[in-house]
Amino acid sequence: AIQLTQSPSSLSASVGDRVTVTCRASQGISSALAWYQQKPGKAPKLLIYDASSLQSGVPSRFSGSGSGTDFTLTISSLQPEDFATYYCQQFNSYPYSFGQGTKLEIK
Amino acid sequence: EVQLVESGGVVVQPGGSLRLSCAASGFTFDDYTMQWVRQAPGKGLEWVSLISRDGGTAYYADSVKGRFTVSRDNSKNSLYLQMNSLRTEDTAFYYCAKGPAAILDWGQGTLVTVSS
Predict the structure, then answer these.
(1) Chain-wide mean pLDDT for chain B?
(2) CB pairs below 8 Å between A and B: how many?
(3) Percentage, residues of chain B above pLDDT 90
(4) Which pLDDT tens digit goes with each residue over B54-86?
Protein backbone atom coordinates (compact mmCIF):
# COMPACT_ATOMS: atom_id res chain seq x y z
CA ALA A 1 0.00 0.00 0.00
CA ILE A 2 1.13 3.53 -0.79
CA GLN A 3 1.81 5.73 2.23
CA LEU A 4 1.51 9.50 2.08
CA THR A 5 3.52 11.62 4.52
CA GLN A 6 2.55 15.25 4.96
CA SER A 7 4.78 17.92 6.43
CA PRO A 8 4.51 19.77 8.59
CA SER A 9 1.83 18.18 10.78
CA SER A 10 0.92 21.62 12.07
CA LEU A 11 1.75 25.12 11.06
CA SER A 12 1.18 28.57 12.57
CA ALA A 13 0.91 31.45 10.13
CA SER A 14 -0.54 34.93 9.79
CA VAL A 15 -3.09 36.42 7.43
CA GLY A 16 -1.27 37.38 4.25
CA ASP A 17 1.49 34.78 4.63
CA ARG A 18 2.50 32.40 1.86
CA VAL A 19 2.22 28.81 3.06
CA THR A 20 3.41 25.53 1.57
CA VAL A 21 2.39 22.03 2.63
CA THR A 22 4.27 19.00 1.34
CA CYS A 23 3.00 15.48 0.62
CA ARG A 24 5.44 12.68 -0.13
CA ALA A 25 4.36 9.31 -1.50
CA SER A 26 6.16 6.07 -0.63
CA GLN A 27 6.21 5.20 -4.32
CA GLY A 28 5.49 7.01 -7.56
CA ILE A 29 1.87 7.96 -8.16
CA SER A 30 2.22 10.01 -11.34
CA SER A 31 -0.16 12.98 -10.88
CA ALA A 32 -2.94 11.04 -9.16
CA LEU A 33 -3.15 13.29 -6.11
CA ALA A 34 -5.82 15.50 -4.62
CA TRP A 35 -5.80 18.10 -1.86
CA TYR A 36 -8.69 18.74 0.52
CA GLN A 37 -9.51 21.36 3.14
CA GLN A 38 -11.52 20.36 6.19
CA LYS A 39 -13.04 22.53 8.88
CA PRO A 40 -14.35 21.19 12.21
CA GLY A 41 -17.63 19.33 11.94
CA LYS A 42 -17.68 19.49 8.14
CA ALA A 43 -16.97 17.09 5.31
CA PRO A 44 -13.73 17.71 3.39
CA LYS A 45 -13.75 20.13 0.47
CA LEU A 46 -11.87 19.33 -2.73
CA LEU A 47 -9.33 22.02 -3.62
CA ILE A 48 -6.96 20.46 -6.16
CA TYR A 49 -7.17 17.30 -8.29
CA ASP A 50 -4.66 15.63 -10.60
CA ALA A 51 -1.92 17.29 -8.52
CA SER A 52 -2.29 20.76 -10.03
CA SER A 53 -5.81 21.30 -11.36
CA LEU A 54 -7.82 23.83 -9.38
CA GLN A 55 -11.35 22.68 -8.62
CA SER A 56 -13.99 25.04 -9.95
CA GLY A 57 -14.96 27.70 -7.42
CA VAL A 58 -11.78 27.40 -5.36
CA PRO A 59 -9.89 30.70 -5.00
CA SER A 60 -6.82 31.09 -7.19
CA ARG A 61 -4.59 31.66 -4.15
CA PHE A 62 -4.59 27.86 -3.84
CA SER A 63 -2.25 25.96 -6.14
CA GLY A 64 -0.79 22.49 -6.36
CA SER A 65 2.33 21.11 -7.99
CA GLY A 66 4.41 17.98 -8.26
CA SER A 67 4.39 14.52 -9.77
CA GLY A 68 5.86 11.15 -8.98
CA THR A 69 6.51 11.16 -5.23
CA ASP A 70 6.72 14.81 -4.17
CA PHE A 71 3.81 17.24 -4.13
CA THR A 72 3.06 20.64 -2.69
CA LEU A 73 -0.01 22.68 -1.86
CA THR A 74 0.63 26.42 -1.75
CA ILE A 75 -1.62 29.17 -0.44
CA SER A 76 -0.22 32.41 -1.82
CA SER A 77 -1.77 34.83 0.67
CA LEU A 78 -3.56 33.36 3.67
CA GLN A 79 -7.07 34.55 4.36
CA PRO A 80 -8.92 34.13 7.68
CA GLU A 81 -11.17 31.43 6.19
CA ASP A 82 -8.14 29.31 5.21
CA PHE A 83 -7.34 28.24 8.76
CA ALA A 84 -8.29 24.57 8.65
CA THR A 85 -6.78 21.10 8.26
CA TYR A 86 -5.45 20.03 4.86
CA TYR A 87 -5.14 16.47 3.52
CA CYS A 88 -3.59 14.93 0.44
CA GLN A 89 -5.02 11.76 -1.13
CA GLN A 90 -3.58 9.43 -3.74
CA PHE A 91 -5.78 7.62 -6.25
CA ASN A 92 -3.06 6.03 -8.36
CA SER A 93 -3.57 2.53 -7.00
CA TYR A 94 -5.71 0.59 -4.56
CA PRO A 95 -6.03 0.87 -1.69
CA TYR A 96 -6.33 4.63 -1.96
CA SER A 97 -4.81 6.54 0.95
CA PHE A 98 -4.73 9.92 2.67
CA GLY A 99 -1.92 11.81 4.30
CA GLN A 100 -2.16 12.32 8.05
CA GLY A 101 -3.18 15.95 7.71
CA THR A 102 -1.67 19.39 8.26
CA LYS A 103 -3.41 21.69 10.73
CA LEU A 104 -3.02 25.34 9.80
CA GLU A 105 -3.45 27.63 12.78
CA ILE A 106 -3.47 31.36 13.29
CA LYS A 107 -0.25 32.81 14.68
CA GLU B 1 -27.94 19.20 -6.64
CA VAL B 2 -26.03 16.13 -5.54
CA GLN B 3 -27.18 14.76 -2.18
CA LEU B 4 -25.63 11.89 -0.28
CA VAL B 5 -27.32 10.98 3.00
CA GLU B 6 -25.78 8.34 5.22
CA SER B 7 -27.69 6.47 7.90
CA GLY B 8 -27.30 3.51 10.22
CA GLY B 9 -24.67 4.76 12.61
CA VAL B 10 -25.26 3.59 16.17
CA VAL B 11 -23.44 2.32 19.24
CA VAL B 12 -22.47 -1.35 18.84
CA GLN B 13 -20.46 -3.75 20.95
CA PRO B 14 -17.05 -5.08 19.88
CA GLY B 15 -17.52 -8.11 17.67
CA GLY B 16 -20.89 -6.89 16.49
CA SER B 17 -22.20 -6.10 13.03
CA LEU B 18 -23.79 -3.08 11.42
CA ARG B 19 -24.94 -2.00 7.99
CA LEU B 20 -24.61 1.59 6.86
CA SER B 21 -26.67 3.01 4.02
CA CYS B 22 -26.18 5.99 1.75
CA ALA B 23 -29.12 7.39 -0.20
CA ALA B 24 -28.03 9.23 -3.34
CA SER B 25 -29.96 11.80 -5.36
CA GLY B 26 -29.38 14.60 -7.83
CA PHE B 27 -27.31 12.55 -10.26
CA THR B 28 -27.49 9.32 -12.25
CA PHE B 29 -26.33 6.93 -9.56
CA ASP B 30 -25.34 4.01 -11.77
CA ASP B 31 -23.02 6.26 -13.80
CA TYR B 32 -20.68 6.66 -10.83
CA THR B 33 -18.18 4.66 -8.85
CA MET B 34 -18.76 5.23 -5.13
CA GLN B 35 -16.49 5.29 -2.09
CA TRP B 36 -16.56 5.14 1.70
CA VAL B 37 -14.16 7.23 3.79
CA ARG B 38 -14.05 7.33 7.59
CA GLN B 39 -12.67 9.63 10.25
CA ALA B 40 -12.20 8.75 13.90
CA PRO B 41 -13.20 11.62 16.19
CA GLY B 42 -10.40 14.18 16.26
CA LYS B 43 -8.27 12.14 13.83
CA GLY B 44 -7.44 12.15 10.12
CA LEU B 45 -9.24 10.80 7.10
CA GLU B 46 -8.98 7.09 6.25
CA TRP B 47 -10.04 5.64 2.93
CA VAL B 48 -12.23 2.55 3.43
CA SER B 49 -13.66 1.14 0.22
CA LEU B 50 -14.66 1.68 -3.40
CA ILE B 51 -17.26 -0.06 -5.57
CA SER B 52 -17.60 0.05 -9.33
CA ARG B 53 -20.65 1.37 -11.14
CA ASP B 54 -22.20 -2.06 -11.61
CA GLY B 55 -21.15 -3.34 -8.22
CA GLY B 56 -19.02 -6.06 -9.74
CA THR B 57 -15.68 -4.81 -8.45
CA ALA B 58 -14.76 -3.59 -4.98
CA TYR B 59 -11.58 -2.59 -3.17
CA TYR B 60 -10.86 -2.23 0.53
CA ALA B 61 -8.37 -0.77 2.94
CA ASP B 62 -6.18 -3.41 4.55
CA SER B 63 -7.63 -2.44 7.95
CA VAL B 64 -11.15 -3.57 6.97
CA LYS B 65 -10.52 -6.25 4.35
CA GLY B 66 -12.33 -9.47 5.21
CA ARG B 67 -14.60 -7.72 7.72
CA PHE B 68 -16.39 -5.05 5.65
CA THR B 69 -18.35 -5.53 2.43
CA VAL B 70 -19.46 -2.71 0.16
CA SER B 71 -22.49 -3.14 -2.09
CA ARG B 72 -24.98 -1.05 -4.02
CA ASP B 73 -28.52 -1.25 -5.31
CA ASN B 74 -28.73 0.88 -8.42
CA SER B 75 -32.52 0.44 -8.59
CA LYS B 76 -32.74 2.17 -5.20
CA ASN B 77 -29.91 4.70 -5.73
CA SER B 78 -28.32 3.33 -2.60
CA LEU B 79 -24.85 2.40 -1.37
CA TYR B 80 -24.20 0.12 1.58
CA LEU B 81 -21.38 -0.87 3.90
CA GLN B 82 -21.79 -4.12 5.81
CA MET B 83 -19.43 -4.07 8.79
CA ASN B 84 -18.75 -7.30 10.70
CA SER B 85 -16.42 -8.20 13.56
CA LEU B 86 -16.35 -4.58 14.62
CA ARG B 87 -13.46 -3.32 16.73
CA THR B 88 -13.10 -0.29 18.94
CA GLU B 89 -10.75 1.20 16.35
CA ASP B 90 -13.62 1.20 13.82
CA THR B 91 -15.25 4.01 15.81
CA ALA B 92 -15.54 6.87 13.33
CA PHE B 93 -17.70 9.08 11.20
CA TYR B 94 -18.35 7.23 7.96
CA TYR B 95 -18.73 9.32 4.82
CA CYS B 96 -20.27 8.22 1.55
CA ALA B 97 -18.54 9.81 -1.45
CA LYS B 98 -19.19 10.05 -5.18
CA GLY B 99 -16.67 9.40 -7.89
CA PRO B 100 -13.80 7.11 -8.86
CA ALA B 101 -10.88 9.26 -7.75
CA ALA B 102 -10.72 12.76 -6.23
CA ILE B 103 -13.92 13.34 -4.27
CA LEU B 104 -16.01 16.40 -5.00
CA ASP B 105 -19.23 15.24 -3.38
CA TRP B 106 -19.45 13.95 0.20
CA GLY B 107 -22.28 13.04 2.53
CA GLN B 108 -22.57 14.58 5.98
CA GLY B 109 -21.34 11.40 7.68
CA THR B 110 -22.84 8.95 10.16
CA LEU B 111 -21.19 8.11 13.47
CA VAL B 112 -20.41 4.52 14.35
CA THR B 113 -19.32 3.92 17.94
CA VAL B 114 -17.89 0.54 18.89
CA SER B 115 -17.90 0.25 22.64
CA SER B 116 -18.87 -2.15 25.39
Answers:
(1) 97
(2) 53
(3) 100
(4) 999 999 999 999 999 999 999 999 999 999 999
- Taking the CA of residue A53 and the nearest CA in chain B, the distance in Å comes to 11
Residue closest to A74 by CA, chosen among A106, A47, A38, A99: A47
Q: Do B100 and A91 touch (CB under 8 A)?
A: yes
Query: Is pLDDT at B112 greater than 90 in this prediction?
Result: yes
Scanning chain A, the segments in alpha helix (DSSP H) are: none
CA–CA distance, A27 with A84 (Å, rounded to integer): 27
> Is B47 in contact with A89 (Cβ distance < 8 A)?
yes
With CB atoms and an 8 Å threshold, state whether A101 touches B44: yes
